[in-house]
Amino acid sequence: MRAFVTVNFFLCIAFVLLWNSGYIAAKYVLPMASPLTLLAWRFWALALILGVFLVITGKFRWPGGKRAGEAMVIGILAHGAWTAFVLYALKEEVPSGIVALVVALQPLLTGILASQFMGERPSVLNWMGLVLGFVGVGVAVGSRTTFGGEGTLFGHLLPFGSVLAITVASLLQRKESVERGDQDISLDQDLFYQSFGAAVVVTVPAIVIEGLATEINAAFLGGMAWLVLGVSFGAYALCGFWCAVSTPRG
Known about the structure:
The protein has nine helices and no strands. The protein is 80% helix and 0% strand. It is an all-alpha fold. The longest helix is centred in the middle third of the chain and has 29 residues, at 152-180. The protein has helices spanning 2-29, 35-56, 65-91, 96-103, 106-117, 124-144, 152-180, 187-210, 218-246. The protein has one domain (35-214).
């Protein structure tokens, strides 16, 4: 039992470090590509690599229009919208720590709203955690916001869009998971359709609004490689392994 707790603790720490490294990598790459352009490159690369992997391993399959559509909608919200709000906040020079702090409200908000969608009754501790979380974020954001700077207040509000987008995505995914039961596609298949949906949606405005302008150099390729392989692949693979070792064996 002690070994199980230790493994879970280190997996949790590794996931948090790996996932949150994306904020630093994104801020590093942003000077070389605008937010939507960066997302287009990232999600097409992710979808391509996953697609090739699924074909080589013989796991690629069409799960049906309804299931694929669900995954794509979740991908558009959880990857496309969520990351776009984060990147635009970073572009507005909001500190990455503040962005990460605001986005960290998502699990609390999802837990509370789950009572409306899943019939789960939040405890007093859930409500206290949500209130304290919002107060803490309010103090942190308020202390860093200057109303005299152009776009500063707007920039600090953008991460709340990320919270809303990924909260809706989490609730949809949770609801669909309960309805489907154990009959579902694997994590890598799900991530492929999510990344494909996000890539399709962000590409059009990336071309129309930003012209897909990119400064391709070693720094850009290195940062993009980390966002795709380290954050997307690494964090999701770690999450899948974490869920596997944490699931009670019957």
